[in-house]
Amino acid sequence: MLGYTEKIKEIAGRLLKECTVDMVIGFRKGTMPMMNEPCFATTPEAVDTLWWDSNCGINLANYLTNRKEKVAVIAKGCDSRNIVTHIIENKIKRDQVYIVGVPCTGMIDKRKITGMVKGEIIAVSETEDTIKIKTADAETLFDKTEVLQQNCALCIHRNPVIFDEMVADAVQEQTDVDRYADIQKIETMGTEEKWQFFDDLLSPCIRCYACRNACPLCYCPTCFVDEAKPQWMGKGQDPLDVRTFHFLRAYHCAGRCTDCGACERACPVGINMRLLTRKLEMDCQEQFGWEAGLSLDQRPAMDVYQANDPEAFIK
Amino acid sequence: MELMGVEPDRLHFSWISSAESTKFVNVVKEVTEKVKAIGPNNHFIKDTAKVA
Amino acid sequence: MSDWEPKIVSFLCNWCSYGAADLAGVGRMQYPSNIRVIRIPCTGRMDPKFALTALREGADAVWVSG
Questions:
Q1: ipTM for the assembly
Q2: Å from C63 to nearest chain A CA?
Q3: Most buried of A8, A50, A197, B9 (most Cβ within 10 A)?
Q4: A220 vs A125: CA distance, rounded Å
């Protein structure tokens, strides 16, 4: 993924010069290591700040909702699937977006790395498959596979499914991953144990809604948590309210979530709420053979009725 | 729901035509039996002491 | 708690189960009085948050019937 930056700048510069698009949405380096931030380039000069490395975990499809102008967007595999979902849900038109596809080999988990080294991280550099972390008094070299975000380690759609132009040749897809091992483990627990497990998992939640804001699917004008008449749940940190929020948010993402990991990445306290969204993803896969965002022509599983839909749960 | 630790028998689905009153009665009985078997719903009660 | 009786919130479709419930009443059939019926225009009106709200508000179970 190292040569991508130059290529992205070149493509973005060309698109803006030729006025093919009004804006390019990509990444630029953040002010802190491992914190790249979204960048909105509207002039050919501005493309110089564009950047690409293994810290571009934010899902840029999030910035496409209800755009009026023509935009180009730099899209990883997961982003491209979310763009497909956006197009299907009429949040943007296909001819309005110019998708610059980026074959992705995974994003690194800053929380994991921070936990693995002592002291403040001053600089991070990378090669194709290693990550070098520099702290005040030491330098540590990691294999990139060691420090990937969990969703990237489990990713089976690294290449964009939809694009107008690719930055590089497609990378090899992972085929031998067991995406749902951790969920299956929870499923073997007893009822009480499960309840306790999720109480513990969600207990640090401060209801900041960073997960909701980072999520490209959460574009409702009024979120159910903000509704007051009727009020579906309390707004505080009561464990039950927290649980209801995460549970319902996961349900709203059922059959739409692409497991881009933006929610978990954005979470200031590191809650793995993806356990809930992935459970629903797993159910969609098993029961409807549906994976979100793979094709523009197929209606989502939650949107169609088929005579062979599972109905064993109905008496 | 099940993954989160809610007993599966707390949520029932059925399909009854408006002409099937016998089935309706049977399903009501069945659901009631099952819920009686799992007992009261304790998890969803807010710990008010903690809130206050 | 031997005298405990469950409260079951039932979401019944106007055209199907609600009709069946009505018919059961007209036919004077006996059924347990544990259910609290909420009529919805169609099972498509059902939402996960209804079920959760019912449980949060103290229902012991939720029954959705089309």
A1: 0.84
A2: 11
A3: A50
A4: 38
